[in-house]
Amino acid sequence: MHTEVMAVDRDHPAPDVIDRAAAVIKRGGLVVFPTETVYGLGANGLDADAVLGIFAAKGRPADKPLILHVGAPEQVRNLVQELTPAADVLMERFWPGPLTLVLRRSALVPDVVTGGGDTVAVRMPAHPVAQALINRAGVPLAAPSANLSGGASPTAAEHTAGLHGRVDLILDAGPTGVGVESTVLDLTGPVPVILRSGGVGRNEIGAVLGCEVEVREGDEVYQLATPFMLLDGPPEQVIRHLRHLLALDQAQGRRAGVLAYREEVTFWSPAALVQVVGSRDDQNELAGNLFAALHRLDGAGLDVIYASCGPSSGLGAAINERLKRAAGGRVRRVPVRSLLFVCTGNTCRSPMAEALFLAAWQRRCREQPPAVSSAGVAAVPGDLATPGAVAAMETRGLSLAEHRAQALGAGTPDLVLTMTGGQRQRVRANFPALAERTFTLREYLGQGDLDVVDPFGGDMAVYRACADELERLCGQLVEMLCLAGNGPVEHEV
Ligand code: TXA
Ligand code: MG
């Protein structure tokens, strides 16, 4: 398919360009168009075949529903069973704008739009080009963000390059304004629920409705091509930790990039590629630049990208949420005041790691170590450490005699480190409060997703090899935490 790109003026879209685009929509084609949040990939939302084209072009899973974009609030009426008072007042206050409402659908809406469900998401975008196109086409536009499925949303037409050859027309009106996607608010239950934080904040919605608004965000991730690490904590500690990580990267020849707040650029070593996203205190600026900055860093051929959470008020919640998604749902908190090692039975790997970590810390740092413990995802409480683990520690002057296995349970340590990806999955699934802060040990150290293999049932050589490996990894972990995140700086990096 040949993809045509047409420039269009944001505020005064030329009628002939809009006519062309509307004609493509009316004959069932696909048009990438700007909204005030991100670029959308639009088709006639009442034409099931046209909508199927969106899924094909994006590689989007068929059960993921689409937003219908309307040109005026009245156009929602035919698409839904009823307009509730809450919907009315929200449309009145926030439309046109970055708020999507999920309502009960009418029979007019094709199943492909709703993923077969009985609700439909609707929004009226504020962008003049989007409005002109919808009104000229005379139909609601089904449109997801105009990225290939799983990618970060496009805030400029250049970011939609992946769709060349897959869509009929791209309307290029320059960068979008808001920068993060619309807030998706479900109004079909007893209380309003934010399914995705975005351009309109929770408090703003709560204030208009005069009630509590719940937040229940999905765990969708943006698959960046480059490994992405997100830090959270007091800015001074985050800066110190990140400087240490950058020094490690440099020493190991890894090229790193930092998504940086303007106030902090001077802290990053010249070895890192720094992409300023905006001022820490200007959330509109941050949101507006976020995806463009991510796209730029992701396209720079780096080995790793770092970012840190900002304040979470207002648009900040939506920004931090996007960062979290880019980080695969995981956040590195600094400083680490409490640390839990997790394996399966809590009789070999995790108690060894606990002992080895503390020993390494005491050799290396004068600061107070974090509170360290260990547990198993399938532990029999009270079990002793296996003889192999006891012996492997004894040769290092460490004792596991007092160790008793415990199951994973209460408490929320700052950091949970598992030995394997499978254990990480079990922690995340069974303990939602820990999900964000659970990593495999190697993953946390930036060494990819390799497991520390279970020595259980092996001979002494197997245990020794496992202990050697854990000793090395724990030493690296101490370097990362002791010298970088916790306590005062011992030496400049
Ligand atoms: O700002 C935006 O919302 C952009 C612009 C183009 O309007 N659109 C956008 O669409 O981000 P998309 O498809 O990338 O994300 C839509 C989100 C998805 O998380 C989807 O699951 C959710 O809205 N959604 C759509 N219909 C829904 C429904 N009926 N019930 C619950 N969630 C729905
Ligand atoms: Mg999307």
Ligand set: threonylcarbamoyladenylate, magnesium ion
- As for the CATH topology of the largest domain, it is DHBP synthase
Domain tally = 3
Judging from the principal axes of the Cα atoms, what is the shape? elongated
Average pLDDT, rounded to a whole number, is 94
The CATH H-level homologous superfamily of the largest domain: DHBP synthase
Distance between the termini: 53 Å
DSSP helix fraction: 25-40%
Radius of gyration using CA atoms only: 26 Å
**Number of DSSP helices?**
15
Beta-strand content bin: 15-25%
Look at the structure and give the CATH class of the largest domain: Alpha Beta
Strand arrangement, major sheet: 1-8-2-3-7-4-6-5-9-10-11
The total strand number stands at 20
- Unreliable runs: 486-493
CATH-level-2 architecture of the largest domain: Alpha-Beta Complex
Structural class: alpha/beta
Taking the sheet with the most strands, its summary is: 11 strands, mixed
Detailed description of the structure:
With 493 residues, the chain is α/β, with parallel strands linked by helices. It is 34% helix and 17% strand. It has an 11-stranded mixed sheet with strand order 1-8-2-3-7-4-6-5-9-10-11, sandwiched between helices. Strand 9 (183-186) and strand 10 form a beta hairpin. It is elongated and about 80 Å long. Bound molecules: threonylcarbamoyladenylate and magnesium ion. Magnesium ion binds at residues 144-145, 153.
